[in-house]
Amino acid sequence: MRLNTGLGGTAGLLAAALVLAACGSDDDGGSAGGDPSQNAEATEVTLTITDNAIAGGKNSEGAAWITDYVIPEFTAMQEANGVDVTVEFEENGVDDEDYKTKIALDLQSGGGGDIISIDGIWTGEFAEAGYIAPLTDIAGDAVEDWDGWEQIPEAVQQAMTFDDEAYGIPVGTDGRVIYFNKELFAQAGLPEDWQPTSWDEILEAARALKQLDGVTPLQINAGVPMGEATTMQGFLPLLAGTGEQIWADDTWTGATEGVTEVLDFYAQVYGEEQLGDPLLQQEAQGRDTSFQLFASGQLGMLIEGDYLWRSVINPDGGIAPMANRDEVVGWAKIPAREPGAGLNGQDFVSMSGGTGRVINPNTEFPQQAWELMMFMNSPEAFEAQIEIAGARITPRDDVNAEALAGDPLMEFIASEVLPITAYRPALAIYPQVSVALQEATAAVASGTSAEDAAAGYQSELEGIVGDDGSIAD
């Protein structure tokens, strides 16, 4: 059944609003965008970029890119056009939630930088609170005329979209795939170019791997200790493979057929056949342990994002370096439950996260702020960022095609996965729903039936979003 609620993240936003009010905020904030032509002809302009990046600390490479490339290059470009621009960089190096609180307070009070970096998952919450506005409301028709949109797949644009309107431009994204050990596959009689087309084929491969001594066939994150990794690397990609999303048409998905099917898949992995290790899902550092197992050739398959490839098993500086990574590690798209059963009738699915930038609705220079946004999201700017910070999947197809050409996994995700990916709902209440999903997977991994775990999740969901009687079968 689907639990209907028109409230979305209202409860969380109301709580946030009360906190802000207690901090002494005034009534001037929460602008929904002003006059796009304001100060359009100004020849002396000051703009501020706010980011959770700081030299020598958190996201230091991003800070260096802004300081060493964006500011001098944009200033020079504007000077050539007869505009004296001063670009200031407001650095931060704090926990993400502390950063979120800071920029929310800034925006609510009518202040804050002109260009602000945010996590895509905050977009809906900030939009519903009136802290940010659609780009077209701020900068007008120039937004729709930007040729950069043609290079950003529609699926990726969703990271900064709310109610079908673009509130910002995504600046980075990722994608989930199934990683597998080709040497273990060969020992189990499985093909090196393995690409499953259904959940059954994943389970069949896991059963073959189970015959190998000292090998855990499959890791699909479950339980609360793994946190959002359970939801993003496990539950939500599988749910997309049933054709369902956790939030669609202004409803939260409750104990639907798809949710039950996902939990049944977990039951098959962690039940009697023991195709995965249920105890690992209960460990505080279980995800890190799974990385170590994969790097040491003791784990056959796991679902992860490109983070695993570039930051975990990277032979050059990874936290669990795998010297033979490039020869041994294979990857495959995540299949739908069966061909054609995924979202939009897809055969394969994925989930992505990402960050983006918004324009402050309170900016005094909306046109110049938009010009800075376009500059920061130009091919040249992304190429400069990659030179400083290393290869990353950018939102732009043209940049990815060139910059990732030497990295087969990154290129695969950019070209094959991003066009079919999906994103979490950008609503304040989502983190609570995510925990309820994690608890449901933990229950199944501990022996609870899929049906009972789904019913438990339904009850938790009703407690989170409220039950006004509008629950549809």
UniProtKB/TrEMBL annotation:
How far does the signal peptide extend, from start to end residue?
Answer: 1-21
* Swiss-Prot/TrEMBL keywords: Signal
Q: Which Pfam families match?
A: SBP_bac_1
Chain coiled-coil ranges: none
Residues passing through the membrane, by range: none
Q: Cross-referenced InterPro entries, in alphabetical order?
A: Bact_solute-bd_prot1, SBP
Among PANTHER family, the record links this protein to: ARABINOSE-BINDING PROTEIN-RELATED, BLR3389 PROTEIN
Protein known as: Extracellular solute-binding protein
Q: Which organism is it from?
A: Jiangella ureilytica
